[in-house]
Amino acid sequence: MDPCFSDLKACTLDKHKPLVIVDVDEVLAQFMAGFGTFIERHGFELRVDRFALFQNIYRPGETEHLDLIAGRALFDDFFRDGGEDLLPAVGAADALADLSLQASVVILTNAPEHGRQTRARWLKTHGFDYPLVINSGPKGPSAAELAGRVEAPAVFIDDLLPQLESVAASAPNVRRFQMVADERLRPLAPSAPDRHARFDLWPDLKVALREALALDGR
Ligand SMILES: [Mg+2]
């Protein structure tokens, strides 16, 4: 088992340190861009004209999207084999490295079962060598469990509004931040900035996270 990989119970935290709980796809990784590159190599194209995944996959020249079962198969292949096409979000590794000097970082992702080891390796390769917790479904209960282990501020970062809402419901003391790494998805992503602050660039997000976590200096 990769040492980067742990489950929720095995993830030990320093209870005196602030906590950063962070998603992967469209937060640490440029998922849509990588998936687009991957499916192009397989003869398909991604048209980012809605905030969806399988409905955006087309055969070149066609106007109807690929059927959902074939889209799902490409998605499964990407999680298993597409690591080379998946690039990190700009500035994410540097920002987390800075935050990790004073805070604990836990990566909370909903990667499918068959992609877990690949995902753990990808994270480590790209400078995200932090405990990895694989979640399934809404992230609120897991975020509440993690935040309950520290006696310090905690933040949660995700691109998906339902996940931010889930954390608001289960762990209302955890400050929520939305980040959408893909420029094409940014105008399409549902947001509620009155409830979950939104920053799409890591340098800006880092400043807001430092403030929320009451970190000193810089
Ligand atoms: Mg995501």
Quick gist of this model?
This is HAD family hydrolase. It contains 7 helices and 9 strands.
List the SSEs and their pairings.
Blueprint: E1 5-6, E2 19-22, H1 31-41, E3 45-46, E4 57-58, H2 68-81, H3 92-99, E5 104-109, H4 116-125, E6 132-134, H5 140-147, E7 154-158, H6 161-170, E8 175-178, E9 197-198, H7 202-212
Helix pairs in contact: 3-7, 5-6
The protein binds magnesium ion.
Magnesium ion binds next to loops.
Protein name: HAD family hydrolase
Organism: Caulobacter hibisci
As a percent range, the share of helical residues equals 25-40%
CATH topology of the largest domain: Rossmann fold
Return the structural class: alpha/beta
Distance between the termini: 37 Å
Mind telling me the CATH class of the largest domain?
A: Alpha Beta
**Overall strand count:** 9
Q: Judging from the principal axes of the Cα atoms, what is the shape?
A: globular
Biggest sheet, strands in spatial order?
1-6-5-2-7-8-9
CATH architecture name of the largest domain: 3-Layer(aba) Sandwich
Count of helix runs: 7
- Supply the number of structural domains: 2
Cα Rg: 17 Å
Order of SSEs, N→C? Answer: EEHEEHHEHEHEHEEH
Ligand set: magnesium ion
CATH superfamily of the largest domain: HAD superfamily/HAD-like
Q: How much is the average pLDDT?
A: 93
Low-confidence stretches: none
Content of β-strand: 5-15%
Mind describing the biggest β-sheet?
7 strands, parallel
